[in-house]
Write a structure and sequence with these properties.
Bound molecules: NADP nicotinamide-adenine-dinucleotide phosphate
Number of helices: 12
Order of helices and strands: EHEHEHEHEEHEHEHEHEEHEHHH
Strand order of the largest sheet: 2-1-3-5-6-4
Structural class: alpha/beta
Number of domains: 2
CATH class of the largest domain: Alpha Beta
Distance between the termini: 45 Å
Radius of gyration: 19 Å
């Protein structure tokens, strides 16, 4: 007999901090779906075996997070266009008996701005601070929305240069010291570094460098109001926190595994904020 309960997961190492189980369990309850979503800690050396055993273990698919996103990219049978562009897979599912991999971070980033700063994509230039995995997803989203001038600044100059080479002529690489100059006419500033997480001083970027119409967004969401967002709001700039990206990136996976496209609502956001408040 076929098990009617669909089972999905988030897999990382470590994984205890992940809020994905709260998000997906919330939607399963909300829509009365007989399913489950669990966090699974898998060490890198066990990851290939874990992935090849999904079907046998009765898992419909799941999310892949640090440090397995590149290994998943290499292992899946088929990839979507976003995963190809970004070079990492954060969502896997079965289709026609094969394991497919996608990347929903770029979708989540754009959907968060669509919700919180409608019209953002009319901007011509964006400054992306950071050149890690999250920056690749952000740059893909910006190119998909036809932002014509994307300036990447990073502590390690070579990584910014790699992204400029990967994404083509619209993307330029800069040193962190160039931020005052490249922010001067920017429509959007995005922090994709881990700076600003609870306890650190945050990104040393001054929102006063930006024009008054600029939008500032931060991928860090613990705390929700990072030092960068607080400074930008104090200057009167439009700010968007990173929690919405986390919520929206979860939508396509839930739909694939459980068959219903879920809504990102204020009630879901409140649920996660309550969890963050309890732990910070
Ligand atoms: P990553 O690949 O490790 O990249 C980290 C980036 O931060 C690099 O550009 C690194 O610069 C920079 N950095 C780290 N410490 C720094 C320091 N002390 N000074 C200057 N730059 C520093 O990480 P990632 O996967 O891109 O993730 C970055 C952040 O985005 C994390 O906080 C993550 O939680 C967050 N994120 C949020 C969402 C969301 O849904 N809101 C989604 C994805 C990621 P170097 O290259 O010089 O090392």
């Amino acid at each position: 007999m076929v098990d009617p309960v669909r089972r999905a997961f988030v897999c990382g190492h470590p994984i205890a901090h992940s809020r994905s189980p709260i998000i997906h369990s919330y939607w399963l309850d909300r829509y009365g779906i007989a399913g489950s979503y669990a966090a699974i800690d898998v060490a890198p050396e066990r990851f290939p075996l874990f992935l090849s055993g999904l079907s046998e273990a009765g898992l419909a698919g799941g999310n892949i997070t640090i440090p397995h996103k590149e290994a998943a990219f290499a292992a899946v049978a088929r990839r979507d266009a976003a995963a190809e562009a970004i070079g990492a897979v954060n969502t896997v599912w079965f289709e026609d008996g094969q394991l497919h991999g996608g990347n929903t971070d770029a979708y989540g980033f754009a959907a968060n701005l669509d919700e919180r700063a409608p019209g953002w994509e009319r901007g011509r230039s964006a400054v992306v601070v950071g050149a890690g995995g999250a920056a690749r997803a952000v740059i893909h989203a910006l190119t998909e929305r036809s932002i014509g001038d994307i300036r990447v600044a990073n502590r390690t100059a070579g990584r910014a240069a790699e992204l400029a080479a990967r994404f083509g002529a619209r993307v330029s690489a800069h040193a962190m010291g160039a931020l005052p100059e490249i922010c001067a006419d920017a429509d959007l500033l995005i922090n994709t570094t881990s700076l600003g997480m609870a306890g650190d001083m945050g990104l040393s970027a001054d929102p006063a460098w930006l024009p008054g119409h600029a939008i500032v967004t931060d991928l860090v969401y613990v705390p929700l109001r990072t030092p960068l967002l607080a400074a930008a709001a104090a200057r009167g700039l439009k700010t968007v926190d990173g929690l919405g990206m986390l919520l929206h990136q979860a939508v396509p996976g839930f739909e694939r595994w459980f068959g219903r496209r879920p809504d990102v609502t204020q009630a879901l956001r409140d649920r996660i904020v309550a969890d963050l408040d309890g732990k910070t």
